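pinned: reference chain
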Amino acid sequence: MFKRLFLPLLLIGFASNAMAVEMKEGCSYPDLIASLELNLCWNETYDDLLTDADRKLNEVYKELQAHAKIFDASPALAKNETPTSIQLRDAQRAWIKFRDTDCGLETLATSRPSFAAYAAIKCEYEMTVARTEKLQSLSKYLDEICDPECSR
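pinned: its C-alpha cells
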C-alpha cells in the first residue's frame, strides 16, 4: 500500500519543483491513481520545452560561432593559438555527448520506465537552458576582450 502511494507522491513532488514549468494544456490528473497520465503529460510538456530550448541554443551557438570567426581573424588571437571557433565547435560537441550521457544516468534513478523518460527529458531541458546561458556569457566576454576592429 505504501509503495503504491509513495511513487505518485514522489512524482508530483518532482513535477512541482520543475523550474516553475506549467504543465501542457489539456493535461489533468484528478487523483493519484492517474500517475501514468500525469507522467505522460509532463513528458509532453518537457519535450515541447526541450524543442524550444534546443532551438534557442542553436541560435545562440550560431551567433557565437560567427562572432568567434571574426575574433579569430583579428589581431587579438595569438598566432600559435587554436582558433576560438574551433575550440567552440569542439567544446559544443563534447558538451552534447556529456549532456546525453549524464541525462542517461537520470534514468538509473528509477525503476519505472515511464518516469525514467520524464527524468531524462527534464535533465536535457535544464542542461540545455544552462548551456545557452553559458554561451551567451561567452559571447559577452568576447565582446569585452575583442579589439574594436573585430566588433560585430
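why pinned: The helical segments are 2-16, 35-73, 84-106, 113-145. Confidence is low (pLDDT under 50) at residues 1-18.
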